[in-house]
Automatic annotation (TrEMBL), chains A, B:
GO terms for cellular component: plasma membrane. Residues 95-233 form the Hemerythrin-like domain. It comes from Thermococcus sibiricus (strain DSM 12597 / MM 739). InterPro entries: DUF438, Hemerythrin-like, PAS-like_dom_sf. It holds the Pfam family Hemerythrin. This is Sensory box protein. Gene3D superfamilies: nmb1532 protein domain like (1.20.120.520), PAS domain (3.30.450.20). Coiled coil: none annotated. It comes from the Archaea. PANTHER family: BLL2471 PROTEIN-RELATED, DUF438 DOMAIN-CONTAINING PROTEIN. Residues 15-80 form the DUF438 domain.
Length: 446, 446
């Protein structure tokens, strides 16, 4: 084992040296040969783990991503065709198969983007140029969706599983790259939109360059995922985990594929990230591919064993929360709520400073008795319309001093459509009417 | 008992007849004598119960209120001075004493209003008129607060207790009258504001008339409360009920009085309306004043015995609610929330259609891993500022298509000031930016 460890240590040292030399500005082509030699001794599954270690040693995820550009390119030859094989093994609708199939679409579109951009540059005919630009606009518009669908599913549904297992660096490196690609495509769309603001030559030069970069980054990511990320997932994730992923995928959506339903079996319990045992058992270890076994042996992985559900927590379906947290949430809401139950009785109101004050004495009181007698008839009409399903909201607004009060009543129903009660929501919308322009997270100053 | 019942039945019939005749347009002064005779046989505590019965028989609360104007006026002579006696019996800070003391202030201000309005009419000197108008403006401004404080406390804190006991008609009649008074004072304020839009003579005539009406209505209500409502309360409410009322009074506020703390004893449990036994026991019945005993004997009161707390309900401090209702409330909120706990882990997000979609896989995930790596540093800075108490919110806004997204982060703390976590609130403010003018409850159309 010491030998293996030393071997990995050696490889890591070599990779680190290369990385520093790339950073130092050395010619990448010159380094390619040395890099190929080092890589030949590393399995695809070992790379993310070494990256992980390098991140721990203080090298930024951004720098690692730069190194990856090079090693993935070199890697291409060695593992070419693997994706085809992997994909064929998987049943239709399996989330991993869907990812592979989407990558084929992405690869195709990336190649198209590059091809059309080059063709545009050599086309003299104005009508033809117009047509090509039309295709490019459509293509760029399509590619924007890669970020919302394919990447977003990975970031939101799949990364949590590898993060729990301590492999957070893989997630961070990929997400950094995803964001770079999102930005590149956004920039391309902007360039297309503003093409009339510059000369044709300027546009052409800039577009060809940026399209080439985006196409390369997209296909590079396909390669990275197919050959490093997906095999890692295949080796680590259980049926229950894939089942949970499949159950949530449709909410986010797909890139140009329509996966059928897939269920590994009714007896398989869907496993959410907080439900898995992130530590690999001996049996699991032995069933892993050799490369992963080797890599894991010398790896002091920081498993995430935190428990989500605490004693006394309320299971709200979308989270586990304590009564104390719940109270604080209702108090912090920028809206006041009051809930009357199916029998028209006040059952709950949000605590804290309110626009219309409420005291505990109102609990259990029929809503009809909580209003000036003059307006009871209308209250009853609204409730009748809600209960009979004729109305799904009633809204009102009025000025009181500096405040512009917006009041909304909504009927609540359970899953079977049974009336549960009505919620009164009150808020001051005056501050929102003042808001102009944008203020984004990255603009925040301490 | 049959005799007593018949006696009440007889009195009720007489009152009903009188009411119908007043309604029919008969001269009130003529009816006064007959009315006096009928009233002489009815105790102050019996009146609300008869009113109650009349309401049950289909006579509107509004009509009853009209009849009350007459009977209260007649009543004045018979029960004059009672309030002074009642008030002296009560300890300082007792909610009932506070009500009596406020009524002294209200009576004084109502008399002042009438006096100054009359003086204004006879004043020729312009400077003097200005001074009197100044006093009147201040007075009307003060009197506006009667509705927010004295009446509001009665409507919100005290009515629920008598409603539970089945005496809803008293509450409805008083509230109708309160609202009439609120409207009168509002109209007076408006008249003062718009005095330059009409001739002095016109203003004077209108103001004198309206001020007289308001002053009468205010003092009439004082009389009604002191002689009918408060004695009823004194006879029915227990120490625990007054304790619960006292605990909530400060939230609403007072009219020109500052009651000291009052506690009937540490051993006395505060009783909220839903916690009382609304049915009177034999012992309680026997300890009531004779008049109430008589009145209750023949009274088929509809006690409100509904239970507020159901099996499995969560006690949120300001209500008892089921998990199912809670889920439906979060789904219906016009804001999306995501809660990260004190360890920066996502613990809960509101379900349903959201601006930024969330899947269950995010639960338990450290918030730092839920953001594009580029923005992690800022997320950490914000959380640090929250945990150290340097910031109490961070807000952002951006346009996405038709939506104008407003994002707010707020740190949550428990009662001891310990950090519980941070809440992310997201909402689309575009619809609120479109809202103009007012739309009030009474404008609602089915």
């Amino acid at each position: 084992m010491t030998e293996l460890l030393n071997n990995r240590e050696y490889k890591k040292e070599q990779l680190k040296k290369l990385l520093l030399r790339i950073h130092g500005g050395e010619d990448v082509n010159k380094l390619k040969e040395e890099f190929r030699q080092v890589l030949s001794g590393i399995s695809p599954l070992e790379i993310p783990i070494i990256e992980q270690e390098l991140v721990k040693e203080g090298i930024s995820a951004r720098d690692i991503a730069k190194m990856c550009d090079l090693h993935v390119e070199l890697f291409r030859e060695a593992v070419k065709g693997t994706d085809e094989l992997e994909e064929r093994d998987l049943p239709d609708g399996h989330p991993l198969k869907t990812l592979y199939l989407e990558n084929k679409e992405i690869m195709k579109d990336a190649e198209m983007l590059n091809l059309y951009a080059r063709t545009l540059a050599t086309t003299k005919d104005k009508r033809m140029r117009g047509e090509i630009l039309g295709v490019l606009e459509e293509l760029v518009n399509d590619l924007k969706k890669v970020g919302f669908t394919h990447y977003n599913r990975e970031e939101m549904l799949i990364f949590p599983y590898i993060e729990r297992r301590g492999l957070t660096a893989i997630a961070t490196v990929l997400w950094t790259k995803h964001d770079e690609i999102r930005f590149m495509i956004k920039r391309l769309a902007e360039l297309l939109r503003k093409k009339d603001e510059m000369s044709w030559e300027e546009f052409l030069e800039r577009f060809k360059e940026k399209a080439g970069e985006a196409a390369f980054a997209l296909s590079d990511m396909v390669f990275r995922e197919n050959n490093i990320f997906y095999p890692t997932l295949k080796a680590l994730l259980s049926k229950g985990e894939w089942k949970a992923i499949r159950q949530q995928e449709d909410e986010i959506g797909y890139y140009k594929v329509n996966p059928p339903a897939w269920d590994p079996g009714e007896d398989v319990k869907p496993l959410h990230p907080w439900e898995i045992n992130p530590e690999l058992s001996v049996e699991e270890l032995l069933s892993l591919p050799k490369e992963v076994q080797q890599a894991l042996k010398g790896q002091p992985l920081e498993f995430d064993k935190s428990e989500l559900k605490r004693e006394g927590d309320i299971d709200l379906g979308t989270g586990y929360i304590s009564v104390e947290e719940l109270k604080a949430i209702f108090e912090a809401l920028p809206v006041d709520v009051t809930f009357i139950d199916k029998d028209d009785r006040v059952r709950f109101f949000s605590p804290g400073e309110r626009i219309f004050s409420r005291t505990k004495s109102v609990l259990g009181r029929p809503v009809q008795l909580c209003h000036p007698p003059k307006s009871v008839q209308i209250v009853n009409k609204i409730l009748k319309a809600f209960k009979e399903g004729r109305k799904s909201e009633a809204t009102f607004w009025l000025r009181i001093g500096e405040k512009y009060i917006y009041i909304k009543y909504v009927p609540l129903f359970d899953k079977e459509g049974t009336y549960l009660g009505t919620l009164e929501i009150t808020m001051d919308i005056a501050p929102y009417k003042q808001i102009e322009d944008e203020k984004r997270l990255l603009d925040w100053r301490d």
